[in-house]
Amino acid sequence: MKNILITGCSTGIGKQTAIYLQNKGFRVFASSRNIDDIKELNNLGIECFYLDVTKKDTIKNTLDEVLKLTNNKLDVVFNNAGFGQAGALEDISTQVLKEQFETNVFGLHEVTLQVLEIMKAQGYGTIIQHSSVLGLVSLKLRGAYNASKYAIEGLSDTLRLELEDTNINITLLNTGPITSSFRKNAQAKLKEHVNIDNSRFKDEYYKSLNTKKSAVPFNLEAIEVAKIVEKIIISKNVKPRYYITKATYLLGYLKRILSTSMLDKILLKI
User: Fold this and answer.
1) Considering its fold, how many domains does the chain have in total?
2) H helix intervals, the chain
3) Which of 70, 87, 89, 110 has the greatest number of CB atoms lying within 10 Å of its CB?
4) What distance in Å separates the CA atoms of residue 75 and residue 118, rounded to the nearest whole number?
5) pLDDT digit string (tens) for 79-98?
6) Catalytic residue chosen out of the listed positions 20, 50, 145, 206
7) What is the CATH number of the domain that holds 95?
8) pLDDT digits over 203-214, tens only?
9) Residue 82 is part of which domain span?
10) Which pTM was predicted?
């Protein structure tokens, strides 16, 4: 039975992936920084630990606890923890940008560093990095999030090359629109960190905040991401990246064939 650690399991993709993989017979170690969510997952029969990717000690403590339960073996880690800071770049302070990177990039990197020591010692392993379609293309008013996902792409592509002589796989998930709490949380971050009324994008912000949630083209349920994670776990030949949703395939393809100016015209309409 393979052991998998997942970060960011409070809601959405992390939670659904933990439940799905547990039901498929894998030994799942979920993690969250929310005590109530940890209790809920424990009540569902899933081993869940306190882990805040921005706090180095909590990563080490969780890994130590997991290794005690698995005879020092860890097959797969899914770096899923992250959030989206909405807002135009001119409205985002450097401190807020740092906060976006602290979780999405630096936290992911710290988990990766600590896990690599385990996997190098055991001689194998797979690390799944949760990127996004916005790690391939950029959308306006999402600059902080775009930048964090581009950074994950660069880190992961480089790490894959540097681990070429090992049996450790590094792979990326480029997810498009997935049913989760992501949009609600991004709206909260927008209101928290952006002076909306003093922005030249005020009308666009309020339109976004006041628009009732509607069907998003190409949206998939979180379970579809879980199925891809399962595919990676059992695969003998892990691919460098996996596109999830038609939106990712479409925009990834358009980026390859269109000029930057032509692609920009399309992205401005999204």
Assistant:
1) 1
2) 12-23, 35-43, 56-69, 94-101, 108-122, 143-162, 182-193, 202-210, 222-234, 246-257, 260-267
3) 87
4) 10
5) 999 999 999 999 999 999 99
6) 145
7) 3.40.50.720
8) 999 998 987 655
9) 3-267
10) 0.96
